[in-house]
TrEMBL record:
A cellular-component GO term for this protein: membrane
Keywords: Membrane, Transmembrane, Transmembrane helix
Transmembrane segment boundaries: 39-59, 71-89, 101-125, 243-265, 277-297, 335-353
PANTHER family registered for this protein in UniProt: TRANSMEMBRANE PROTEIN 19 (PTHR13353)
InterPro entries in alphabetical order: DUF92_TMEM19
Region forming the signal peptide: none
Lineage, highest ranks first: Eukaryota, Metazoa, Chordata, Craniata, Vertebrata
Keyword Transmembrane listed: yes
Pfam families referenced in this protein's UniProt entry, alphabetically: DUF92
Membrane topology per record: Multi-pass membrane protein
Source superkingdom: Eukaryota
Compartments in which it is found: Membrane
Species of origin: Mola mola (Ocean sunfish)
Family named by the database record: Belongs to the TMEM19 family.
Protein name: Transmembrane protein 19
Amino acid sequence: MFHECDSCDDTCSPVLQLTSMDSEGDILMKEYTKMMTDMIVLCVTLALSLFFWVISLTISTYYGTLQPVSPWRWLFSILVPFVVTVRALKKKSLDRSGALGALLVGFVLTMANFSFFSSLLAFFFTSSRLTRWGGAQKKKIDAEYKEGGQRNWVQVFCNGGVPTELALLYMIEVGPGEIPIDFGKQYSASWMCLSLLGALACSTGDTWASEVGPVLSKSQPRLITTWKEVPAGTNGGVTPVGLAASFVGGLVVGVAYFVTQLLLVSNLHFADPQWPIILYGGVAGLLGSMLDSYLGAHMQYSGFDVSVGKVVGYESATTRRICGKPILDNNGVNLFSSILIALILPGLAWWMWPR
């Protein structure tokens, strides 16, 4: 009835042997299914990229001004955003609606310009990691704290909608591909590139400030409009640590854009200097965060609810108003901030850009 196992000194029953075999069979089946799923995804992606390539070739024969897009660019623009989105979905950085929105944003930005793609990745990965960091501290002060910071489609488009629209305009202007920032040779396209970079740096700076400030800051936040001390979590509250973090976050996005330019643009020596892109990202992150705080102080309601002991965004009998009016929510403030930075900051950059 019993026999010795080869892998141990204990006696094992046939039932345990069968259970072990079933378990190994399930593991093999899961690995096989995963492998087949990956193969199917790759084949579908290849088919889609070739299909779009044929379409671009057909269109280019009728419209001579349009250049066909390489099938490898189609493949990269479909496959890489898909892989990143699936990974984010598994890590609960996105919910299902957010994943669909991220797929669209990622595809458009990657197709338009790989520098856009690298800047988007810098924003997404750093923001997702910082959102999970210091969760215990953030939970104490944020009444709406969500574990993992899972983003939905509204949050994705409020942060990525402006860059997506700019990327589409960029492709209409010069087509998919990488170009140097050069106002003398590519005025409107350079403006669009800096607008897009500014919008992403603005979102990154605001996220870094709101995620790093509450964890590392030792001082009480001050309302940006009056400079009076306010409770942590108040819309419009800023700290020196948070402002510094917003500048560093923008720098990270600028570095990602600049490095991609160095790697992929061959004629940089004929264009204006590109290093100001890094500083531009930092300034956009800082100004974007300050603008977000200013709008939040005026257009987002903040009150202290004594029943929960936290700052909340709703009015109730137990809530004491701190600042703001219930006009916009956090997503609306983020959207307006990125729009204003995208519209205003490139003009200042054009005036100050070294030539």
